[in-house]
């Protein structure tokens, strides 16, 4: 009898655990007859700001909207340059592009997958107005150093916290360091809703006020449009669901860390496998558990045959996407990002994954590497 499949991702246990709470919350929205920017949204904005540790949270329709709005209220305009990781999901690049700004790639540290001050010091800063550090895979950038560097160069900071809900650096939550910080609540995130959703957190009351206006057609009073805004309003149903999930987030993140520790132990010393780097002074949240392997595609095929799902984050770096052909980059221009695209494989990791599942994944990887 074959072993049961291990999916690359499953939300079942998390959603089963909160089903009764979620159904009550969704029923309240249905019976309340207010479906956009209502009491559930206001409650979530208050609760999430308190959780992150900022004065304000302004929700919006998606993580990409959050990035675009954050850059816009910080004054980023067409022709400005914005530093972005060379290794990231394309949304980080699309945000400056949406404003006519120019994304400028910065190579990451190959162990943590994130940009560092060392990598930033190698970049030509002429025309650079902003930087978007991404806490990729739930591992955090060293934000105190990045903020000090940015202040020294008069550069505004937008943290991309889409993959690091609940993570912290030196006791401070990610998404609270920058001037205006973007969050995504796509269903697969550590804090995910039932569709699309996003938010911007900030300590600046003026920025928060601008964000509320811009997300709502440029109006604070209905039919009175102060600026050219967009429709990026947040749904009550999504906010109600997130209000429930937020109370469980720390527990789920603790489970992610526990499972990650099992992977670290089970794969330790395995020749040919690179494990994610960790720092001692932070709390990682392991949105994804990535490993590096030169034989990545063959390993993925082997695991699939064994009933184990995996994912690749991300197979084509942004600078090699057809969408960014106009920037003139070629293969070889950003070798670290390209190497990560060729080597990184994301293993199953989510609340509900069993210890024996982790052990089986580790065993199959060792078998593939000829070290079982």
Tell me the series of helices and strands, N- to C-terminal.
HHHEHEHEHEHEEEEEHEEHHEEHHEH
- Helix/strand/pairing class, anyone? alpha/beta
Provide a count of the helices. 13
State the total count of DSSP E strands. 14
Mean pLDDT metric: 95
Spatial shape: globular
Percent range for β-strand residues: 5-15%
Radius of gyration, in Å, reads 21 Å
* N/C terminus separation: 21 Å
Specify the helix fraction band.
25-40%
* Cross-sheet strand order for the largest sheet: 3-2-4-5
**Main sheet attributes: strand count, strand direction, barrel closure:** 4 strands, parallel
Unreliable parts: none
Short characterization:
Helix content is 38%, strand content 13%. By secondary structure, the chain is of the alpha/beta class. The chain is globular.
Q: What can you see in these coordinates?
A:
With 372 residues, the chain is α/β, with parallel strands linked by helices. It contains 13 helices and 14 strands. It has helices at 12-17, 19-32, 39-52, 63-73, 91-98, 117-120, 143-152, 205-214, 236-246, 249-267, 296-305, 335-343, 355-368, and strands at 56-60, 81-85, 102-106, 128-131, 156-157, 168-169, 172-173, 181-184, 198-202, 219-221, 224-225, 282-283, 289-292, 344-347. It has a four-stranded parallel sheet, sandwiched between helices. Strands 1-9-8 form a three-stranded antiparallel sheet, with helices on both faces. Strands 7-6-12 form a three-stranded antiparallel sheet, with no helix packed on it. Helix 3 packs parallel to helix 9 (236-246) and helix 4 (63-73) packs across helix 5 (91-98).
